[in-house]
Amino acid sequence: MENKPLITYSGDLAVFQSVVPSLQKGIGSEAVEWKRAYGRTTKHVHLHPRFIPFNQEEICVSNVDSSSISVPEQAPLTTLLDQAMLHTYWTDCVDVEVYRSTTKDAIQSWLNSVKSCNVREWLIILVETPDNKKTNKLLPRSSVLDKIKNDFAQKQTERCVCLSDPQKLDSKSAESLHSMLHRLRQLLLASYSKTLTKFEENMRAQRERRNEAGWNFCHYFLLQEELAFVLEMLGVYDEALVQYDELDALFTQFVLNSHLTDTPQWLLSFQRYGDRWPALSLATNLACLSEIRETVRNSTVSLLNFRNYLFARQALLLIKQNRLNELAQRSLSFLHNCINELAILDVAFSEEGAVSCWVFVSCLEILSTICGHGQTPTGAVTSPQNNLKSSLESQDKGQSHNNKQHPNQANPQHHPYIFMTASDFSVHTAHLWDYAREKLYELGKLCGLLPKSQPKSDHLHKVISLAAGLVCFDSAAHNSTNGNGTTSVSSSEGSSDNLEEAAAETPIEKLKNALSSKPLFQQYYLELCELAMGTYKHIGRLRSARKVGLSLASYYMEAEEFNKAVGFLVDALKTFTNDRWTVLVIDVLLKLAECYQAVGDNERYIRTCAQIACSKQLESSRRNHFFDEMMTCLTEIEGNDRFVISPTEETFIINTVKIDTLGKIHLESCNVRVTVDLYSNLPRPVLSNCVQAAILPYDNHTGAPSVPTFPTCAPVKGKGQQKHTNKKVQQNQGAEGKGGARTTLATNNENDTAVGRHSPNSSGDGKERLSRKESAALAPALTCEDEDNLAIGDINPSVLRLSLMQQLETKQDKSVHMGRLMCHNIHQALRRKDSQVKADVQVLKTDFSQVAKANDIIINPGANVIVLEAKITSPGTYRLCQVSIGVKNFELLSPRMGCKYHFDVEKVIGKIDVDSLESSLIAGIEQMMSLSLHTGSNSIEKGMMLYIRASVDLQLRVDGSSEMCSEIAVPLEYTGAFATTKARFWVKAALGPQKDNSMIEHKLMVRCPWSIEETKLSILFVPPFMSSYKLNSVGQRKFIQVMLQGLTETQFLIADHSLSVQHKNAENIPLVPLNPRSQQIKLRTGQNVSYMWEIGVTEVEDDHPLRLEFSMKFQCENKSAELYKYYVCLQRFKTLYEVKSRVEPHKGSEFCRVGNMCSMFVDITKFGSDVHLSLMYEVRADQHLWAICGRSTGVVLMEGNATQQIVLDVMPMSPGFLPLPAVHLSRYIPADQKSGSSSVPKLEPFSVGQVFNRSKASQIHVLPPQQSSGSTSGLSGGSNSSLPVVTDSPF
């Protein structure tokens, strides 16, 4: 049961029971200010007390003063939670004589009993009800309340309150109840203040005796924890946490002092249970807490059990305050502190690795609690590979201004049952993931689960022993091995649970499964590594992530899975290279060379050997060895037409490039000499079969700046021969008005695939080669300014070219007043940069169709000068772009050289449209739709994706095998420039309650392959039907009619209709269907369907809204059935009045004729109770049918009479069966001249269904006017037509 403050009640039990609902509902509705002693911060708390009967014996026994507990040898401590903090007395006596004779003595006896208790706060409540107010009409000199105050509370009048008629809802009663509740809260908090002050004084006195002999920390722990429980009960979680922090600090100080002084006797008990290592559990189990507190009271708790309990309580209070970040921050220090205390107290465990088991399970339990409270996942189970990635991406959106993005980081695997959301947690949870990984590796090493270890019988015994001692700390108190602490160990090799089973695993089960077999150990270890790396990368601690990656790479290398280790080694190599940690770079290069050689990847092995051979920190013998390996591999692939492309990096350093020919180049046979100053870091000379520099043209004309496009190059064919394919770019002059649009053809380097890049998540045979497209490394279209920045940044990374613009301000006389320089890329120039991280600039091969080259050049170690020659035959101006050095089939490319040139390019931007459909899209069912993509100047490669994101209540899927979701990626086929392709997919729009035939509009946000921006498209859905309702009345009976009207040509099958009441007493409100439940109806446009139910109005209170839910299933041909819901809200629909009309001829007339005066009788019958008794009636009729003679409106008073009759004179104006004149009723609210609230009368209409017109469909037979005596018999209708014929409606 939840702890609540206790308040006793005594006196008249019936009076108290009548007020209890109002008390329980109102006392906790408002916060009350709690003023603390000793200058503490004022708190606002909500009180939710529990009322118990006053029993003097039980209360006095439970209210034992805590000061009596002075030494640990005494009886168990008395808890504060069982003490009643306020005593109340309830009476409804209003007669002074009755008070003097009986009530006064009863109150005096009760007060004497209260004063014998330690908590003496009391309150007397006098309840005034309407019954006891009418006993005496004379006003007494003094009331009973005055007598009570005079007799018992002369100096404390606030302890006597009066509660006026709590059953009424007027303002006086509400104010009285509010005053009484406020007094109750104030006295309850005042009682707590006094009691807690005494309790804290006793607690401090006990703490001061901590150095005395016989003092026991366990007994003091229970004493101070009582204070924490009370503070937690009152909602003061921060102060409750302070109590546990003080206990934590006190215990830690005792442990540290025991290492230097004599160990207290009570501290020796914490060295027990060396044969078990209870796991941490943060579940809020009250039974578990009581069991652990019992072991503390008996001084039989172990150190791990005590630490687990104390941290669990601290974690619970932090969670209640939503301080999950602090919980994550405390976790790692808690684990280290506990391990340190185990070492100080020399706690020995029966098995090696017990502490590692405890640490591993504790880390997972803490992480599960933190991430579980950060976001509770709902819905279907998501993919474990994408959960953490998507959550980290959502965190990056909130921290994009603080965290620097790392494009090369890997996508970590997600933990099967952890959903991380809060970005602040990652700063602390990253260390927990890493710590859990380290401990799991230690356990795997002990149990023989590493790749090169062979399991033996000793390892199996070790696993069983570790699992036997690992139990939940709540079951450890009873030495139980059931539940989470079961000692059963799975011995299945290679078994793996599915995602649902993994989501239900506890940390203990996860550890036992991990230690049961090598495959499971590897699975869990890899998951922890990926989680640790992903979290480190998310918080920007890339070096820590690389450290974990190196450990994972070593594990893969030990398992001989070299292709998986390569990715992590490459990432570490990039980080170490940027940080210029030369020794670490060489160590990683040696491991990479070993991996590439093991998998037979000659291309990467050649590049790695070249890097190692150029490392001057290695001795010459090893450099020469790898140089020979490089040349040997090049000789082996010399006959192939495949070239190994690599950046020059440290192999060849280009110091200067000089063009000997100055001025413009002539159009015919102009020789160009390019001198390249080159430095080689190779240990021995090498023969280069071709050294060439790419020359590209540019236009040097004035005008608006344009953007160039560079032709791409095809894969290399043969030795030094290349085939080039230039893509033509067509210009659309009318796309953006005059002059067209200018588009920069620049691509993001992060999206380009560079030769030599390897992802840690890549899989497959290590002998697979890169495709020819990857080896060719198609050049991205970069502007000249971008290449300038790349070239300058390659020389000095801190230099960034600024985009400056002159701006002048003039005075009124047009003279210059001020001039300034404006920088447009200031956000790039002044952004924060990591001083150690260098941008990863990829070197891609440009167009080498026109080059300056030299063949068969020997490049010696050190400085070299190479002269290249070229002949230009085409007119124009050119620029030098890139240098290529070929050694057999090994081609090394220099970075792009700086340039500042522009080109005019007109690019037709692709567009996307919604296809015109043969039939309209229908909401509520799944349908196929297609989009038309017009590529323009772009092209679509096979395998590219069209990303589509839908608006709310719109679901998408690609094909029949996938699930519906809000975002999809549609694969596209190859489509050339200026062509059109179609993307088809399935859509389904949610169908809500449709009240009209308006179409439903949804949006599609589409991202095309050639653009990073989304295009918004509108699509319209036609609802299959619309719904409405109508309330029908037959006297006092009510019928609800729900109507469906088809809106589409598509035929739907309607079935399983139902109507339910959304009300707290729904089972008491009968709904009688008039249509069979098994009825199935086909509905399409122009067709209507109606369903009707009768409502049992006798059980309904129509003052409050009555909500009804109509549901049915509709199904289209070859489609699954869908559910449709429609909601109806009824209020004030019971029949209050019934109107019945009849028309009769005047006396002396046998029947009604045209032009003859007739009498109209209107009977108004009252059924229900109505506050307003005055009704205004109004008789309305078509002037072509009836003529109303006299007053057609009037006021009727319904007081005391159930039926009122009104007689009017009417004259029929047309022969035939005429409908009776309509009678309309309204509430008549007369003017109130005295109060002045309304100076004119008002009319208030009735709600639908409150007035039932029984003669609404009745008709009367009116004969034509009498012509002559000869024709009278023919018009009278026979001798039997002496009375008018009235036809009644079936309702």
Automatic annotation (TrEMBL):
Residues 765-774 have a biased composition (Basic and acidic residues). Residues 481-496, 1268-1282 have a biased composition (Low complexity). Residues 526-611 form the Trafficking protein particle complex subunit domain. Its main location: Golgi. Residues 917-1023 form the TRAPPC10 Ig-like domain. It comes from Orchesella dallaii. It comes from the Eukaryota. It is found in: Golgi apparatus. Residues 377-415, 481-503, 713-774, 1262-1291 are annotated as: Disordered. Keywords: Golgi apparatus, Transport. Residues 1147-1263 form the TRAPPC10/Trs130 C-terminal domain. This is Trafficking protein particle complex subunit 10. Residues 377-393, 400-412 have a biased composition (Polar residues). Residues 2-327 form the TRAPPC10/Trs130 N-terminal domain. PANTHER family: EPILEPSY HOLOPROSENCEPHALY CANDIDATE 1/TMEM1, TRAFFICKING PROTEIN PARTICLE COMPLEX SUBUNIT 10.
